[in-house]
Amino acid sequence: xxxxxxxxxxxxxxxxxxxxxxxxxxxxxxxxxxxxxxxxxxxxxxxxxxxxxxxxxxxxxxxxxxxxxxxxxxxxxxxxxxxxxxxxxxxxxxxxxxxxxxxxxxxxxxxxxxxxxxxxxxxxxxxxxxxxxxxxxxxxxxxxxxx
Length: 147
What we know:
Elements: H1 15-38, H2 43-53, H3 63-70, H4 74-86, E1 90-95, E2 98-106, H5 108-142
Antiparallel strand pairs: 1-2
Helix pairs in contact: 1-5, 2-5, 3-4
């Protein structure tokens, strides 16, 4: 154990605030997952639709781009896209500049489902924001000042 790691010199940690923050995040995630399932989507599929709609201007989402944005493996994204194409929620088209890649985009139906979920999520965030911000601020206040 190094001197910096000894309890007397260890950074101060607000375990209660960390636990509360994780609890508030988990509550939101659970509600979000439940909402996605009420539309027949898996939570990961909802996140994929949101990533497409929220892509930066000029982005041309591909499987690799989605895998990075969702922090998933390539093959997992391929499976999700296949299922969403099958449901008519996304389109997959060959990239005109590189035929090896496919560009993924939302369909009108996909946008409608995403919009309903996003309105719900915005309400949930407004409802849960005070508790989340309070827990986050308690963590920030307890963190040692960086030099």
